[in-house]
Design brief:
Blueprint: E1 16-26, E2 32-34, E3 38-43, E4 48-54, H1 60-77, E5 81-90, E6 95-101, H2 111-114, H3 119-128, E7 141-147, E8 156-159, H4 161-165, E9 170-174, E10 185-192, H5 196-209, E11 211-214, H6 215-220
Antiparallel strand pairs: 1-2, 1-3, 1-5, 3-4, 4-7, 5-6, 7-10, 8-11, 9-10
Length: about 220
């Protein structure tokens, strides 16, 4: 197809090693609170974030630089509330801002179970003048986005819920959407572990158990 001839801002592709994110809270007087750096893993076929690892598997010096850059980005905006800052770790070790989302963010859903203050409570604290809450990670966590399965359209049906919730440290959040579509975000699962490796092993089990399909296909089956 021919290119669209309209004024455009085109960014050069950045070869990156990892995609990272930081939730940053800023209150009405300019105080900030930073959550741990997390690692986002994207589905290579559909370019959708399907896994978030907290904490990110990066060296300490990269963690410090990522936090510095994320805080500077939010302070430059002078906004109030929580911000999801997405960043690239380039192949030559630089940390670059990809985008800033001025709201609770998919990469911060793990905070509900894994941090002392969830991103949602923190947002309310920030905008109402309450003290910002502590952001420490209680336990390592993996968050899986629960996506509609390929070829599934219609009333959603969650397969494997009972088995998944029998695994210790697993919390399921469904978004109440009335229709499932292929690769639509229908909910998320947070898996806690004593180490990030343990949480990842549990997450791979959950990935094979939980599926969002259409009720129509269940009836046909």
């Amino acid at each position: 197809e021919p290119p669209i001839e309209i004024p455009s801002l085109i960014e050069e592709f950045v070869p990156f090693e990892k995609e990272l994110a930081v939730m940053v809270a800023r209150d009405r007087t300019g105080n900030t609170a930073l959550y741990p750096v997390v690692e986002m893993v994207f589905n290579p076929d559909h370019n959708i974030c399907d896994t978030v690892l907290a904490p990110a598997r990066i060296p300490e010096e990269v963690t410090r630089e990522t936090l510095r850059v994320a805080q500077a980005a939010v302070e430059a905006l002078q906004g109030v509330g929580v911000f999801g800052v997405e960043l690239f770790l380039t192949k030559n070790g630089k940390v670059l801002v990809n985008e800033v989302a001025p709201r609770p963010h998919n990469s911060g859903h793990y905070t509900i179970e894994a941090c002392l203050t969830s991103q949602f409570e923190q947002h309310i604290r920030a905008i109402t003048g309450l003290p910002l809450g502590a952001t420490e990670l209680i336990r390592p966590a993996v968050m899986l986005n629960l996506l509609g399965e390929a070829g599934e359209t219609g009333i959603p049906f969650v397969e494997g819920m009972k088995e998944a919730l029998s695994i210790p440290g697993v919390s399921l959040h469904l978004y109440g959407k009335r229709e499932v579509r292929p690769f639509r975000k229908m909910g998320h699962v947070t898996i806690l572990g004593t180490t990030i490796e343990e949480a990842l092993r549990k997450a791979e089990l959950i990935r094979g158990i939980l599926k969002v399909r259409s009720l129509r296909k269940q009836h046909e089956g």
